[in-house]
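[recover] target loaded
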C-alpha cells in the first residue's frame, strides 16, 4: 500500500504546481488564463501484476459439498469413507509425484513404467438402493499421484493371487499375500482399489478393498 501511495503522489504534486502557475499568470487581469486539462493515472504495483500473471497451484480445498476430507496421514482412513483425502501443500503443477507418507484410500490406475504406479484418492458413494461404488476426483481435477513400487512391497489381495477367489476378512480387505509381479499385473488389468501405504516416496504396502 505504501508503494502505491508514493507513486500516486508524483502526478498529484505536478497538478498542484501547474494550477499554482496558472493562478499567478492571471493576476494582471488583462488576459484570461488558458484552460488546462490534466489526467492523473494511478499506477498498479509491480507485485500486483506479477500475482495476476502467475497463479500458484495448490492442493484442492474442501468443497462446499464436503467431498474433500482430512489429509493423508499414518492413520488408516475409513475403508468406505465418503470424502477424498487431501495432501495440503502438494504442488501438482510440477508433474505427477508421490503423495506424502501415509495411507491413501485410492485406486491404482496404471503403470507409468516398469516400476512406477499412478494412483488417485477415492471416496465411497452410495446410491438410493443402498449399494455403492468408489468414485475418483472429478474429471479435470489435478489430484493424481505416482510412486515407485518398493521391491519388497506387501500386497494383500482380496481376490487371491490368481484373481478367482475371495480372500477377505470381516472388514472387506484382502488377506492373501501375493507377489510384486502379481500386484503389477492386477494394476494393469483390473480396477484395483486399495489402502496404499507410501513411505519414503515409495509404495510399500497395498491392501486391496473388496468391491462386489
Amino acid at each position: 500500500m505504501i508503494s502505491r501511495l508514493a507513486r500516486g503522489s508524483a502526478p498529484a504534486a505536478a497538478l498542484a504546481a501547474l494550477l499554482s502557475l496558472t493562478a499567478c499568470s492571471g493576476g494582471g487581469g488583462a488576459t484570461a488564463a488558458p484552460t488546462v486539462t490534466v489526467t492523473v493515472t494511478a499506477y498498479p504495483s509491480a507485485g500486483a501484476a506479477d500475482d495476476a500473471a502467475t497463479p500458484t497451484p495448490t492442493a484442492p480445498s474442501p468443497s462446499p459439498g464436503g467431498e474433500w476430507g482430512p489429509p493423508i496421514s499414518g492413520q488408516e482412513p475409513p475403508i468406505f469413507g465418503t470424502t477424498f483425502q487431501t495432501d495440503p501443500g502438494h504442488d501438482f503443477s510440477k508433474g505427477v509425484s508421490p503423495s506424502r507418507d501415509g495411507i491413501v484410500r485410492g485406486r491404482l490406475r496404471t503403470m507409468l513404467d516398469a516400476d512406477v504406479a499412478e494412483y488417485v484418492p477415492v471416496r465411497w458413494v452410495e446410491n438410493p438402493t443402498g449399494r455403492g461404488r468408489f468414485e475418483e476426483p472429478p474429471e479435470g481435477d489435478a489430484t493424481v499421484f505416482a510412486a515407485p513400487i518398493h521391491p519388497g512391497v506387501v500386497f494383500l489381495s482380496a481376490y487371491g493371487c490368481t484373481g478367482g477367489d475371495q480372500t477377505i476378512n470381516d472388514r472387506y480387505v484382502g488377506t492373501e499375500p501375493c507377489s510384486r509381479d502379481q500386484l503389477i499385473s492386477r494394476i494393469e488389468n483390473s480396477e484395483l482399489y486399495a489402502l496404499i501405504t507410501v513411505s519414503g516416496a515409495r509404495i510399500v504396502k497395498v491392501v486391496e478393498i473388496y468391491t462386489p
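[recover] notes: DSSP finds three helices and ten strands in the chain.
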